[in-house]
Amino acid sequence: MARCKAEFLVEPFTEGTQGAHVIAAIDAVAASGLEPQVGPFGTSVEGEPAAVFAAIMKMVDAALANGASRVGINATVVA
Length: 79
Hints:
This protein has 79 residues and is an alpha+beta fold. It has two helices and four strands; from the N terminus they run E-H-E-E-H-E. The protein has a four-stranded antiparallel beta sheet. Strand 2 (37-38) and strand 3 (43-47) form a beta hairpin. It is globular.
């Protein structure tokens, strides 16, 4: 079965610090049982498509509820 990788960037972006909107987004993905990989300009998560997309939906809700002005998402099928 195919796996999916989703990368997301929560804005506003402030170099060197994560705002409440970013922390809430990362925490929502982790609470979904997936392991977010936090990078300097975004975060990624990989897993079964249904689990990844369910986590992304929760992440968007959490980010917006905590002050995000924009959430960019890129999803890719991986082997």
